[in-house]
Every structure is written in C-alpha cells, then in structure tokens.
C-alpha cells in the first residue's frame, strides 16, 4: 500500500481513531469505558498508528491499531505482520489484540482478518472484534465515492453471468473477449468483475493488451460469496399444479409438453428433482422447479396447461435473469434442459427437506472437478 503525505496521513489517522473510539464506545455501552491511549506509545520506539484502551470490570483490553486508506487481501500480509510484531515488542500487562482500521475494507479482507483473529473497523461503521467472551459484529455500508467502482456488487444482472462463466471455466485461462462471449455480456462488465476479483486475489492474469488472459484460482471462495448472496435474494416464484399419472415421470412429462409446443425461449429444470437426476443421491423427490426468463411465467404456464394453486402445487415457476440459464445441460435421451451444476447447488441451499444433503453431494462433485483442474 502506498503511504500518503505526513500531514494528510496524520489527519486521516486521527479521524479514523476518533471514529473507532466512538464505534467501540457505542458497541460496549455503559459496560466499559473506551479511550484513545495512543499517547502512551510515544517515546517507546514503537511505530504504531494508535492504541485504544477498553476498561471493563472483568478486564482491560488494549487494541493496537494500524490505519490504512484502502485494504484488499493483497495488502494484508505486511499489515498483519506489523500488528503482531508491535504487540509482541510493546511492554504491557493487559490482554492485547490487533485491529486494522481502513477507509475502505473489502469483504475479502474482512474475511481473512477474521480467520487470523484480527479485529477490523471500516469508516462507514463496520466493526468486528472477538476476544474471549466479547464479540462485536456490526456491518454497515462502506464510505465510497460514487466514482469508485471498487467493492462493486458482483452478483447482480450481467455481472452474475460473468461470475457463472468464471466458475464454469475454473482454473482455465480466458481472454476478456472469450469471457464476454461465454457470459453473453460486454467486455466492460467483464472488466469490472475481473478488477474486483483481482483485488480479492481470486483470479490471476498473464500477458497484456487484448491477449491478456485470466484464470479463476479460488472457485471455492467465489462460490461461497455467491452462496451467501443467494440465500438473501428475492425473486418471483409462482406455484402451479398439473396432473400426471406417475409423479416419478413429472419432469419428462413436462419436458415433452414443452418440446411439443416448440417453446422458443430458454428454460431449465432446477431444484431437488433435477439435481437428483444429474447427481443421484435421494430415493425420491417431489415436484418440479422450472427457471424461465423474467416475465415468462404465465406463458410457460399456458404451454404446460398449469393451474395456479395455493396448496398442493407440484410445479414451481421461477423468473430469473439470464445468468441462471447459462450453461444449461441437456439430457442425452430426452429434450430435457437442466440448470448448470452451480445453479442447482445454489438452489438447494434453501434448506427444504433433504436439499442440504443433495447440495453437499453436488458441492463434493464440483470440488473434485476443481482439484482435477
């Protein structure tokens, strides 16, 4: 990370320490007193941006603080080393932990800091501190300028198609043009996503110019991040019923109807029934879930002759952005389209029935592919 000028650096450090003291005091409330004890570091030969003292009836905790303007995973190694060294080299008789405070702290950096048991604070008010029985976990929006594209929302619209394409090509090299073609989106959108993933150190690159290629090196972390967002998304789902003599053949029955009607828009089966065909695990599944483009649910219901119901539904229609319909897998024996294994996995995270078991089964298969790559 680049160091800023001494004057601006001092002002920024003071602003960050003041904001940190306020955030800690608000989090602990009357249970503890919090004050800036940075003056105690002067004259002891310790290069440190600050120290906060938290006094509670049960203990006193010293928080050694390193201040940065922006922090991404690639920036952490030196900062964490410095914190550990300064805590070790400073004489103190109380418990002590390290804290990294930043104007902008990427989600990847936050996660790595937690894994290394380092506290964190972001100027927007996000605060994480864990020590013995104390746990503070506050998430707030970052202070970012409108022109700053760092920390973009990765899992929305066309960007989600880029994420899907990178996962499907895990550990494979792609030029920006190849990625844009696979994701069916613009080179600019691909560039935004790749910039963010590069900052998180989840992709690496080789070459330059139009021939520059990138490779996804951490599909596990990218899928985990997508999974976290997926659990909280809201989408248009509708419940329907259709009669079939043998429920075991529901998907094949629906696919034949769709094929007979010459449907000219993309669709795909998802959910437990579809996943269990591609990765058999369960002895039986119920119902069918079909992904259709946004605004196409009624059209698909007409094609299939479905009846809307509030109870007893055996067909669910889910309206989605194009990302969920990329990389459809077609059955070799029937005109049946299945969602990609990544979409199947994400849709099984809803916790219904034995979906969790099936999700873990598919995740194991995906991880084995990553290892082979």
Give your account of this protein's structure:
The chain has helices at 6-28, 76-89, 107-115, 157-168, 176-183, 187-199, 219-231, 250-260, 271-278, 297-304, 341-347, 355-372; strands at residues 33-36, 50-55, 60-71, 95-105, 119-122, 127-131, 134-138, 174-175, 203-206, 213-216, 236-241, 268-270, 288-293, 307-308, 315-320, 329-330, 337-338. The protein has 373 residues and is an alpha+beta fold. It folds into 3 domains: 6-138, Trna Endonuclease, Chain: A, domain 1, CATH 3.40.1350; 157-231, Winged helix-like DNA-binding domain superfamily/Winged helix DNA-binding domain (Arc Repressor Mutant, subunit A, Orthogonal Bundle); 236-372, Beta Polymerase, domain 2 (2-Layer Sandwich). The strands form 4 sheets. It has a 7-stranded mixed beta sheet, with helices on both faces. A hairpin with a 6-residue loop joins β16 (329-330) and β17. α4 packs across α6 (187-199) and α5 (176-183) crosses α6 (187-199). It is elongated and about 80 Å long. The two termini are 33 Å apart.
């Amino acid at each position: 990370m680049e160091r800023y000028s001494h004057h601006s650096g001092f002002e920024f450090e003071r602003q960050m320490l003041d904001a940190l003291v306020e955030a800690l005091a608000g989090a602990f409330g009357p249970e503890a007193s919090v004050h800036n004890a940075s003056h105690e570091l002067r004259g002891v030969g310790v290069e440190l941006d600050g120290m906060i003292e938290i006094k509670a009836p049960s203990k006193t905790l010293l928080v050694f603080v390193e201040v940065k303007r922006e922090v991404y995973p690639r920036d952490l190694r030196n900062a964490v080393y410095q914190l550990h060294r300064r805590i070790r080299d400073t004489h103190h008789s109380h418990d002590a932990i390290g804290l990294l405070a930043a104007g902008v702290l990427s989600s990847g950096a936050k996660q790595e800091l937690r894994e290394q048991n380092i506290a964190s604070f972001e100027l927007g008010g996000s605060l994480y501190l864990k020590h013995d029985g104390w746990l503070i976990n506050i998430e707030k929006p970052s202070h970012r300028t409108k022109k700053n594209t760092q920390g973009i929302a990765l899992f929305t619209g066309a960007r989600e198609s880029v994420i899907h394409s990178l996962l499907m090509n895990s550990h494979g090299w792609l030029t920006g043009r190849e990625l844009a073609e696979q994701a069916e989106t613009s080179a600019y959108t691909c560039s935004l996503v790749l910039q963010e993933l590069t900052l998180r150190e989840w992709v690496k690159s080789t070459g330059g110019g139009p021939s520059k290629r990138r490779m996804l090196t951490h599909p596990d972390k990218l899928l985990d991040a997508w999974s976290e967002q997926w659990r909280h998304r809201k989408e248009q789902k509708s419940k329907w019923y259709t009669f079939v003599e043998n429920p075991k053949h529901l998907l094949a029955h629906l696919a034949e109807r769709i094929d007979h009607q010459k449907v000219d828009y993309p669709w795909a089966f998802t959910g437990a029934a579809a996943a269990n065909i591609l990765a058999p695990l369960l002895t039986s599944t119920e119902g069918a879930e079909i992904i259709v483009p946004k605004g196409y649910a009624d059209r698909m219901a007409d094609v299939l002759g479905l009846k809307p119901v509030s109870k007893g539904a055996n067909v669910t229609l889910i309206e989605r952005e194009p990302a969920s319909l990329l990389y459809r897998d077609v059955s070799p024996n029937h005109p049946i389209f299945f969602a990609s294994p990544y979409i199947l996995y994400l849709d099984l995270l809803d916790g219904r029935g034995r979906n969790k078991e099936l999700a873990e089964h598919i995740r194991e298969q995906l991880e084995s592919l990553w290892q082979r790559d």
